[in-house]
Write a structure and sequence with these properties.
Number of domains: 1
Helix content: 10-25%
Mean pLDDT: 92
Low-confidence stretches: 8-19
Number of strands: 17
Number of helices: 4
Structural class: alpha+beta
Order of helices and strands: HEEEHEEEEEHEEEEEHEEEE
Oligomer: single chain
Strand content: 35-45%
Length: about 240
């Protein structure tokens, strides 16, 4: 059923025959497989989504794709975009189309989100960026899109100090980094990796000085280019490119 729905969306909106919303490719590093998608935020409309017009959370890519299709738009690429509370409310900052729906979270707590330093992925008039939370609070300029998560994988090329190179805590993980102001790089591991391995991949293979962890276990990817539509778990914030 889900495969038929994706095929119908592709047929209706010609996503396969148009320029890809995100350039996605398979990569390997240190024996681990990854899928990497690059988005030029100067050319593509990268957006954040949480709920529909009736305030119902999307939770999966299919309802979002159908909702967009009803408005004459196509979801070309999407990924889960941050952690959420029961009820799907974002744990941290959530800014969509310039409107803030959840505030910056500077609290202390348990879990990956609160493994400081954490940070924010954002898109402003100058392009995309990843900043540590307190640095983002002092940014002093409006942003069109922002999602907060944690921990930071990389900060100015430095790996998070709490990461352990030989840690046995390996999961499927996804995150986002920036290689240049206009280029956001999203990655999902196809094999379980620990935080250190994931950070090294962003730094040494993808060339990102700054990168942010988005989540693990629920990590999911949607891409018309690769004809992929993951259904692993309920999602909260979703980031995607709309055509």
């Amino acid at each position: 059923m889900r495969a038929a729905l994706l095929a119908l969306l592709l047929a209706l909106y010609g996503a396969v025959n148009t320029a890809a919303a995100a350039e996605c490719s398979a990569q390997q590093s240190a024996g681990k497989r990854y899928t990497v998608c690059r988005v030029d935020v100067r050319r593509e409309r990268l957006q954040l989504f949480l709920q529909d017009d009736t305030a119902q959370p999307f939770r999966h890519f299919d309802p979002l794709a159908v909702w967009l299709a009803a408005r004459g738009r196509t979801l070309g690429f999407a990924m889960n975009a941050g952690m959420y509370h029961p009820g799907f409310a974002p744990v941290g900052l959530f800014v969509s189309d310039g409107t803030q729906l959840a505030a910056l979270n500077t609290d202390a707590g348990k879990g990956n989100f609160f493994l400081k330093p954490n940070g924010v992925f954002f898109v402003s008039a100058e392009g995309a960026g990843v900043l540590e939370t307190s640095a983002f609070a002092n940014l002093g300029k409006p942003v069109r899109l922002a999602t907060q998560s944690g921990p930071l994988l990389l900060r100015q090329g430095a790996i998070h100090p709490a990461f352990i190179p030989d840690s046995n805590s390996r999961l499927i993980r996804n995150g986002v980094g920036v290689t240049a102001p206009g280029i956001a790089v999203f990655a999902i591991s196809e094999d379980p990796v620990n935080f250190y391995e994931f950070a090294v991949f962003f730094r040494d293979v993808l060339g990102c000085p700054d990168a942010l962890y988005l989540d693990g276990n629920i990590s999911s990817l949607y891409t018309t280019e690769l004809r992929r539509n993951d259904l692993k778990a309920d999602l909260g914030p979703i980031i995607g490119v709309v055509e």
